[in-house]
Amino acid sequence: MSKLKIILATSVAAIAIAAAAYWFLVQQPAQQAQVARAEQALLKSGIQLYTEGKFQEALETLERIPSSGEYAAKARYYQGNTHIRLKDYQSAVEQLEQSLALDSDNADTLFALGVTYFKLGNLTLSRGYFASVLEFPPETDQEMERMEEAKGLMDIMARLERQQAPPATDAEPSADPAPGEPVDGGN
Amino acid sequence: MSFSLLTRAARLLASLKVAIPLLVVLTVATIVGSLFPEPDIFRSTWYLTLLGLQGISLLLVTILHIPSILKKKGRNALLGVITTHLGILVLIAGVIYGGFTGFRHQVKLIEGRATVVPGLPFVIHLDALQVEEYRQEDFPRMNLAALPKKQQDSHLTLLKNGEPLLSTVAAPGRPAQYEGITLLPSVSDTGWTFELIITDPIGRESTIAVLPWAPPMISLGERRIVTHGVQGAETREIEIFSMEDGEIVSLGFARSDQSLPVNGYQVALGPVKRYTSIQVYNRPQGPVLVLGSILMFAGLVWHFYFRHRDRRKERRTDNA
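The joint structure predicted for all components is written out below.
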């Protein structure tokens, strides 16, 4: 192979590597940052519309934020809350579940799901979501308030459950131990 | 500059001075982690980083020793060594992959309740828990408390968006599976949870869930009470305790039909429900670990079979 060919091949390889490096290290992050800024602006605008009570417009704005983006969890959370305000609880469940799939440790979303299932009359699931909210130790006044609210709603549901369920089935577990045997809380 | 740093780091990792202490630290950590399951170190970043460094070290050591193995022991031995080491590297990669992507949760499920585990793509509802104990006459000389239950079937429904995805029965040794996620009830870890119905002096009612694994401290005016377990089979009752001058004092028993007065409050027993403990886990690394083990085994077999065959050939040639 002549020297010229080697120089040519090396140059082509170097240019290709430099182009790839430029794309991955400079161009792509810049594009991603631009997309993130646009999504952030959409989220801000969506939240603003939601607070102003323009729910349909808020939904249209928030829907434009793709589920793969940085702000997707928050967008789906606000979409869920907007559906709650519009009393479309089934859609609220879908959006909030999507939000939870993207950000599993979000007590706000768990709480909103508890409220939605409560509105749908599914007390079992509602209690389950509120119970999971109690797993998050409150750090702010707002979180403390949310926890108290969850406890209050769980209390109401426990009372409703007692009133609805026939006492015999509720008080008696499925398999009783032999008479006289202790039924302790442990193993 | 950065290239020379990289070369120095690679040389350091390829040296036995680093590889052996790394192996010792990893071995000790693995033994400690196996003996004490809490906290789970096998998913910690430092453990996985150490494992990754061990993998890189092993890779570099193998590459550096290829020429000498080829020269001293021949091609077959080299192939065996490479396959065995590749197997170990695949195993390490599998453990790291599983450490970052897999999960394991220990969850308590209560009969008739839905349990939300953040991160799971479904909610678990325990429809019913069927438990049957062995009787003393089945094993006259055995301590029944030490035996697993005769039957411990958890009837589960997995829900997504409020809709049932799957209804299944799981028991210890008979896990339920959904989309790579395993639900395995723990052996004998079952019991009872209950609610306390507390009526304050002006007649307001509140409900407090008593979970045996986290019994609550309940304030009734200035008095703080605790309770932990249900007793009695036919007339279930709970004993209420109070802390007085550092001593635990029994205040009496409360039942569903007979409340216990404490400080002007009335304490009654609410619904009693069974609970079971269940492990929910995902091990996406399973197939990778199987592949790594097969490679390692094949490499060892190859190495020893061909190495001995080559030696026998050499001896025969020498004798001839």
